[in-house]
């Protein structure tokens, strides 16, 4: 299949549309994570539909001192990867095409959720992101748009914008793709020297430690619920040697710190150790939040949550996250 390279909205709008159009928005420097998004978009669009990949390095998303100028631009390789993954077209507009009058005076504002975590570390980032996503949704006119879960706060804000402003497009989340060693795929990984990459693995290791602590605690709680509630049942279980195991599970589940506090502590321990490595990991934030508004959850929280981390290794800033479910909902 030949993948068309388009640079103007006029070229894109001139294409004959049949079936559903699914769009994958990127800033280029495509990797296997993007390929997974494109393959998923191909499934959603179906054989009669169309998959469009946008490649645009959005200047509104970069603050002072960030890596706009050195952000990798690899359009030829991007076109090849997109085609192999199933894209029908790559829309790679210039800055003048997207912002014909210069930087827009009217923009989308991310609101309070956009001021937390990533928004606190990168003021104005989410306003710029939402503004370009809104423009690209208007320009590409898709039935569905796909985004990776690695950028969990971005995904939550896009969903909120689409719902609050009645965009009429389906937002599809695709799970994070990881390299064999667990590091979340990112275009910025190429900046890491070998020793920096070893330190960077602490991000995913911290998330996995939090997840494992949570899973162990949930397993203990489930085992504790099986503890016999009557003396007669206790004697019956004792006869088959299960009372000790049930009692141990109950003791551990009630005595050991659990819930969100335990998850944070397990993840924090890994990050604290990484801060002593050479080169060190410089933590920006570790947060366990409600995905509805990205506020920290309390110890009595039940339902879906996101364990998120951001840190710098050398001059490279990386983010990662994992979804978790607490309490009755699990």
Q: In which order are the strands of the major sheet placed?
A: 1-4-3-2-5-6
Contiguous runs where pLDDT drops below 50 for at least 5 residues: 251-257
CA radius of gyration is 23 Å
Shape: globular
For the termini, the CA-CA separation is: 44 Å
Mean pLDDT over the residues: 90
Please trace the helix and strand order, writing H or E for each element.
Answer: EHEHEHEHHHEHEHHHHEEE
Q: Helical percent range?
A: 40-55%
Structural class: alpha/beta
DSSP summary: helix tally: 11
What percentage of the residues does DSSP assign to strands (E)? Answer: 15-25%
Q: Biggest sheet: strands, sense, closure?
A: 6 strands, parallel
Number of strands: 9
In terms of topology, how is this protein built?
Elements: E1 4-6, H1 9-13, E2 21-26, H2 32-45, E3 50-55, H3 75-85, E4 89-91, H4 95-98, H5 118-121, H6 125-140, E5 144-148, H7 152-164, E6 170-174, H8 194-224, H9 231-239, H10 243-255, H11 259-274, E7 281-289, E8 303-313, E9 316-326
Parallel strand pairs: 1-4, 2-3, 2-5, 3-4, 5-6
Antiparallel strand pairs: 7-8, 8-9
